[in-house]
Amino acid sequence: MKHTHPAFEAVKPDIGSSFTSLKFLRNENLKSHVWHYHPEIELIFVCKGSGKRQIGSNISYFSDGDLVLIGSNLPHCGMTNENTNNDYEMVLQFKPDFLGGPIWETPEMQKIAGLLEKSKAGIVFGEKIKKETGGKIAAMHEAVSFRKLICFLEILEDLAATQDYRILNAGKYYLQTQVEDNDRINVIFNHVKDHFREQITLEEVADLANMKVPSFCRYFKKITNKTFTHFVNEYRITHALKLLAEQPLSITEVCFESGFNNFSYFNKTFKEYVKKSPSQYRKEFNYLIE
């Protein structure tokens, strides 16, 4: 199978605007599952719905919507697919200097400048700020010209002021600064994305990276802050979370559908990552939905 590198996405601002505001109705944003990057910073709000996302080396499952800020040239994919049942998805894209570089040095913009700096590692926002901001993002999309810009800056100010967030890529995320690493690491990411249900050996991925196994292990840890085994297990557990929440499969079926070939190892790994058993997770998830 041919491995695709993350696509460079060319983004054009809306006519009469310095940034791009896009609204996708249910399941319209079909391109989002393609591994891609762009120099524009991206704010994504998913209203309701659920799905898997990979931002840098972080793989997560989200339910009841999502609000994430993705920094310049940080590769990402996922967000939604045909089974997610999101009401709509808003995507705001803007160049770091869309208002001119010096504006971020003014005292009034210090908090927002700090937010944009943190976005280089990817940020996911919590329930409270997601609910407060979602309506504002939808309203901003309908506004025009100067009012649209003011609404957008107010949204960024709200996000910069909240403590209700989590950084997605711990430590420094190397991919977005070392472009020469992109091709090699993306071949590996795409291989895991396409083959996580099968057994993946260190030998085959080291071979894809044109490296010996010990060198590959050191390289992968340096780039992602994770061992390769940890990364693959995280991918599989994230898929298991999605299946437990969305599919009427038995837990044994979820185990094998997610690429684990040993039920007790699946249970042990699931508890390590999620801090609860698969059956407990499903029961609590269904209780929340009801």
Number of strands: 11
Strands across the major sheet, in which order?
Answer: 2-9-4-7-10-11
Shape: globular
- Distance N terminus to C terminus? 42 Å
CATH topology call of the largest domain: Jelly Rolls
Helix and strand run: EEEEEEEEEHEHHEHHHHHHH
Domain HTH araC/xylS-type: 186-284
Pfam family, one: HTH_18
GO molecular function, one term: sequence-specific DNA binding
Protein name: AraC family transcriptional regulator
Topology:
Blueprint: E1 7-8, E2 20-25, E3 36-37, E4 41-48, E5 51-55, E6 58-62, E7 66-70, E8 76-77, E9 86-94, H1 110-118, E10 123-125, H2 127-142, H3 145-161, E11 165-167, H4 182-195, H5 202-208, H6 213-224, H7 228-246, H8 251-257, H9 263-274, H10 278-289
Parallel strand pairs: 1-3
Antiparallel strand pairs: 2-9, 4-7, 4-9, 5-6, 5-8, 7-10, 10-11
Helix pairs in contact: 1-3, 2-3, 5-6
